[in-house]
């Protein structure tokens, strides 16, 4: 069963900016899907529409069969969301923030306390549970938000760039918690512009670029969609007859199969350029589809 | 339950950890009371006591403007709550209750002072309770509705103090309505704070307010306390277009 279905979603803001241009994809129940794209690609706009905060100009989004426009209250019973650039209230402790969020969602006091303790432990926040949030680092603050949303037990979770600003260890702690929540059967949509995050976490990836969903499928499917097993990055301007090259800054990228690697490397060495050979990854599909590296947008 | 939780979070816990806010809200009404005690007569001092209650309720109520904007624009707490089953009315009520929690120490202090000044008859106590509640509802709902118009916090912060001062000092709160031209005392009832003050001045026997002005004050206060909550619930940006 599909947990989320997006059909031809367009969004034109009052100032004329068109943020989404017919975004369509679906998410099966129990899957973790990342919306991958550069800043300004339209990821947050889509998440805000799906989480009933923003009306689409055209198209529909359904969450577990309920239309977000015509049945927002039905949808709100089923979802929880970490807003982009959101912060927990700084004067509270992490315990108070998560606990109060659960009370607001309708949990009883004892159940809310139990869930709060469990999720603070899951996000490794227990040592900080009694300090006020204002005293915590940016990464810990973000983890408090994620803990609250995971503790909600909502069937579909929207997490809008939940790991931005976190150090690598803190990011991994959040990843661990998300994997745990997925094991418990939760459906999650997570926006990110971190390739490693998408590759590490996602069952499926939706590549969003300039308001369009350019690819939707598994990470493995994305690698296959590149069409080649390897890429050769040549640090210089190089042309090799018979091979298509992409120029990204000062780097020329060749997508090749195993038997073709040597030929490109020899040509690069003949010109005195340094080269690197790597297996193709999700990033390569992004580059092939958009002509840009994802990091350039940061 | 959701409203009470928000009031606990944004009222009680904040009050407990940042009690200086209470002092800041009390400074102006206490300064005015001091001024009237030194330079005014007994009637003026009693007006300043009633004015203190109205000012504490108003300044705390209107400060919802800053909290609501902070939650919506900066920390995105409102976004977090939109994606939950909480109704916008409960959210607005919760914020409004938290403002009352903040006002409570100041209100308690002024109620004690009013009692010590010998104003607290049964009739006056009833009028005081009704007027204070109406002023708190009106100012907090007005603040919430106005906060929804702002896109930047920089414009919100001064607005709260401007409104608080205008609502607390301009109408006949710290002066008698009899200062207004005869037949036009009802002008004082155009804002809820002025209406509340005229009712309380009259009930306390400090000012003989014209019958039409008294009736206008009662009607105005009821109208503000019922329509402004409606306006706030319409203005709450639970989903943007």
Explain how this protein is built.
The complex is a heterodimer of chains A (298) and B (241). With 298 residues, chain A is of the alpha/beta class. Chain A has two domains: 218 residues, Rossmann fold; 52 residues, Alpha-Beta Plaits (2-Layer Sandwich), CATH 3.30.70. Chain A contains ten helices and 14 strands. The longest helix of chain A is centred in the middle third of the chain and has 16 residues. Chain A is globular and about 70 Å long. The two termini of chain A are 36 Å apart. The mean pLDDT of chain A is 91. In chain B, 76% of the residues lie in helices and 0% in strands. The longest helix of chain B has 29 residues. Chain B has 241 residues and is an all-alpha fold. Chain B has one domain. Chains A and B meet through helix 2, strand 6, helix 3 and helix 5 of A and helix 1 and helix 5 of B.
Report a brief summary of the structure.
Chain A is an alpha/beta fold.
Summary tags:
heterodimer; A: 298 residues; alpha/beta; Rossmann fold; Alpha-Beta Plaits; 2 domains; 6-stranded mixed β-sheet; 10 helices; 34% helix; globular; B: 241 residues; mainly alpha; 76% helix; 0% strand
Low-confidence runs of chain A? none
CATH class category of the largest domain in chain A: Alpha Beta
Cα end-to-end separation of chain B: 29 Å
Please give the count of helices of chain A: 10
Note the gap between the termini of chain A.
36 Å
Mind telling me the C-alpha Rg of chain B?
Answer: 18 Å
| Widest β-sheet, arrangement of strands of chain A | 6-7-8-3-9-10
Order of helices and strands of chain B: HHHHHHHHHH
Q: Compute the number of strand runs of chain B.
A: 0
Give the helix proportion of chain A (percent range): 25-40%
Portion of residues in beta strands of chain A equals 25-35%
General form of chain B? globular
Largest sheet of chain A: 6 strands, mixed
CATH topology of the largest domain in chain A: Rossmann fold
Total helical elements of chain B = 10
Quaternary structure of the protein: heterodimer
């Amino acid at each position: 069963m599909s947990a989320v279905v997006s059909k031809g979603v367009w969004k034109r803001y009052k100032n004329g900016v068109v943020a989404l241009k017919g975004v369509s994809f679906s998410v099966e129940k129990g899957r973790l899907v990342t919306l991958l794209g550069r800043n300004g690609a339209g990821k947050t706009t889509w998440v805000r529409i799906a989480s009933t905060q923003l009306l689409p100009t055209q198209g529909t989004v359904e969450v577990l069969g309920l239309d977000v426009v015509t049945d927002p209250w039905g949808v709100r019973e089923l979802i929880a969301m970490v807003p982009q650039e959101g912060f927990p209230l700084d004067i509270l402790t992490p315990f108070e923030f998560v606990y109060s969020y659960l009370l607001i969602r309708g949990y009883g006091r004892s159940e809310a306390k139990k869930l709060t303790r469990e999720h603070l432990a899951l996000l490794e926040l227990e040592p900080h549970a009694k300090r006020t949030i204002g005293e915590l680092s940016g990464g810990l603050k973000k983890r408090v938000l994620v803990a609250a949303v995971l503790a909600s037990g909502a069937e579909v979770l929207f997490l809008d760039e939940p790991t931005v600003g976190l150090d690598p260890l803190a990011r991994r702690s959040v990843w661990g918690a998300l994997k745990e929540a997925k094991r418990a059967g939760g459906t999650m949509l997570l926006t990110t512009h971190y390739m490693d995050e998408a590759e590490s976490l996602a069952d499926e990836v939706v590549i969003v670029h300039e308001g369009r969903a350019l690819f939707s499928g598994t990470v493995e499917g994305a690698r296959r969609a590149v069409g080649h097993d390897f890429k050769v990055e040549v640090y210089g301007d190089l042309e090799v007859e018979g091979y298509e090259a992409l120029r990204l800054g000062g780097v020329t990228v060749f997508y090749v199969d195993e038997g073709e690697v040597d030929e490109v490397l020899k040509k690069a060495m003949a010109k005195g350029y340094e080269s690197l050979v790597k297996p193709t990854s999700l990033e390569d599909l992004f580059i092939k589809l958009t002509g840009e590296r994802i990091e350039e947008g940061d | 339950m959701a409203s009470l939780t928000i009031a606990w979070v944004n009222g009680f816990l904040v009050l407990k950890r940042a009690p200086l806010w209470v002092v800041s809200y009390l400074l102006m009404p206490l300064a005015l009371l001091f001024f009237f005690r030194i330079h005014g007569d007994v009637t003026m001092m009693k007006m300043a006591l009633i004015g203190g209650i109205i000012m504490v309720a108003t300044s705390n109520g209107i400060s919802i403007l800053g909290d609501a904007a902070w939650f919506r624009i900066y920390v995105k707490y409102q976004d977090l709550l939109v994606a939950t089953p909480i109704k916008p009315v409960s959210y607005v009520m919760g914020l409004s209750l938290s403002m009352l929690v903040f006002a409570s120490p100041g209100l308690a202090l002024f109620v004690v002072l009013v009692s010590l000044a010998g104003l607290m008859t049964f009739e006056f106590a009833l009028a005081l309770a009704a007027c204070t509640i109406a002023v708190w509802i009106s100012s907090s709902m007005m603040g919430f509705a106005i906060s929804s118009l702002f896109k930047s916090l920089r414009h919100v912060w001064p607005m709260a103090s401007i409104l608080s001062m205008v609502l607390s000092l301009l109408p006949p709160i710290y002066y008698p309505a009899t200062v207004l031209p005869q037949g036009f005392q009802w002008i004082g009832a155009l804002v809820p704070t002025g209406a509340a003050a005229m009712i309380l001045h009259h009930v306390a026997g400090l000012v003989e307010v014209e019958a039409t002005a008294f009736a206008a004050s009662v009607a105005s206060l009821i109208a503000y306390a019922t329509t402004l909550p409606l306006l706030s619930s319409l203005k709450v940006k639970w989903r943007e277009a």
